[in-house]
Amino acid sequence: MVKITDVARQAGVSPSTVSYALSGKRPISDDTKRRVEEAIRELGYRPHAGARALASSKSNVLALVVPLRAGIHIPVVMQFAVSVVTTARRYDHDVLLLTQEEGEEGLRRVADTALVDALILMDVQLQDPRLPLLRVLERPSVMIGFPASSEGLTCIDLDFKAAGEVCVEHLAGLGHRAVALVGSPPEVYVRQTAFAQRVVQGFTAAADRHGLASSVHPCEAASGAARKVAERLLREQPALTGVVVHNEPLLEPLIDAFEQLGLRVPGDLSVTAICPDELAESVRVPVTSVALPSADIGTRAVELLMRKLDGTEVPEATLLAPRLTERASTAPRNA
Amino acid sequence: MVKITDVARQAGVSPSTVSYALSGKRPISDDTKRRVEEAIRELGYRPHAGARALASSKSNVLALVVPLRAGIHIPVVMQFAVSVVTTARRYDHDVLLLTQEEGEEGLRRVADTALVDALILMDVQLQDPRLPLLRVLERPSVMIGFPASSEGLTCIDLDFKAAGEVCVEHLAGLGHRAVALVGSPPEVYVRQTAFAQRVVQGFTAAADRHGLASSVHPCEAASGAARKVAERLLREQPALTGVVVHNEPLLEPLIDAFEQLGLRVPGDLSVTAICPDELAESVRVPVTSVALPSADIGTRAVELLMRKLDGTEVPEATLLAPRLTERASTAPRNA
DNA sequence: CTGAAAGCGCTAACAG
DNA sequence: CTGTTAGCGCTTTCAG
Q: Could you state, in order of their start, the residue ranges of all structural domains in chain B?
């Protein structure tokens, strides 16, 4: 293994000069810098990560904790992960993958052993058991999602309440008077995941504000459930003409089910969704939707973390404004 | 930060004794072991990962390189990743997540800096540009998937050729005489990913062997394509009664399309798939399928790597035998 | 602008 | 069965 002293000898300088040439933490003359770079190239030198971490108290590794649980749309998780990794690399950091399953002990382990410098957590619950730990951990963290109180923490997410509102307002603007929300699976609500509840809040508030009849239906994510849900919606709310879907796997089957029940989308029924743009575009009838900007959130989570590692102050809460894209699934209500 | 010398002092032993008590690399009397453990608990000691890596030349971290490209079913990737992480933890290792995008430079970086001890690669192509690098890298690796030559490497995957055969044989056994394969998107074949081609080989060989009429259709993974594919199949092969689907996102839409075209599954058309069991079970008509055992492969990839890290010899190629589960989508051919 | 030297916290000979 | 000690390869004072 080629080490810093080898490079130093080859370049005719001291090891510290090589180190400084690499880090830029003190001025180096152009000439020595060139010689050092050349030596590094010739020898194929790579600084030893462990040695670096030991001497500098920085591992340049971030932990990313991904959820495993039911009711979470996997491609969204994967997209987060990829954008976190990609952004981390731009800041010369790597990403260690942890599963939710490891729990608090896992967080403590990677933080206390200095394996990682900072942490990103997904799928935060309102009363998340990891919150107290994060507040005392000596390493910064960012949560994707919001707990009941973000006091002393850093959180970022789509503004799901506003997303629910935007969907309803879009439908209201098209003249719809009765709307329904097809939500995430019941277990997502039961475990008090904030984002699901916030969509409901926004949806209901906006519907009330506009004087619309509304109902909320948590739903399994199995496509087999689509037909039953569609039938129930129409039975319970015969005047229904607007539907908001916050349940990725159910989106396409649900639209199919409506059409099989004789309702044209958007002729008889307008459908909007809160989901990744990619999904909304891939449905047979492209769906008007509020984007779930996973990649953007992942990127910004890393950026927040980098600022915290720099010692910069960052806001406790970052809510991304919803962006609704009109596609083919919504239209003015029939006379 | 509490360090090993603190623990040693508190326990009244030397630092090396603490180290050995932790690693078990030499016998420690029950009494001292107890005192060491107690001191560790009292002080909340956690060995510094970087220091450990530096002194022992082992980081206890594995790299996992995940594909990003089109035509790959994301949930499968995620399931691999989770099983790799989970299994790695059983062996006291962590997992660093890399994207394919980082390319060979990324592999070299994490290997040469000793950030990781070993690597797992997914989505291997027949002529994978990373192969030469892996052969010279001083760290062991395991590939999920097979390149053209696995000489000097370690590869593991489902036996896709046998999987294709098993599907055809199941259909042949039910009396079907004309079968079609609905395959992965064309780009998967173009970039010469072995698994897609092997399915074709197995499918074709078995069909020929049993004297069945057969055809192969690479297909986009968009559900919108389902109807067109279904129509084409029936047009080109009117006698068709058996279909093998090797394209996850298309499976359900395709069955829907057949039914909309007036063909009952399995009454008129038997359908088998090569896909995760979870998917096969979730379709409205549960699909007879060869399981894509992502979790099993992930686990075994880690186990192979651990053996290599131990210095144990492992086979170059591990092919997992396909397992076909009969469900509701296949039936004897109509008289 | 550059060097010398002291650790960072741990492991693994070596010595008993 | 346990202790002493010499590094692992790098960063960062301290000195010049």
A: 4-55, 61-158+294-320, 160-292
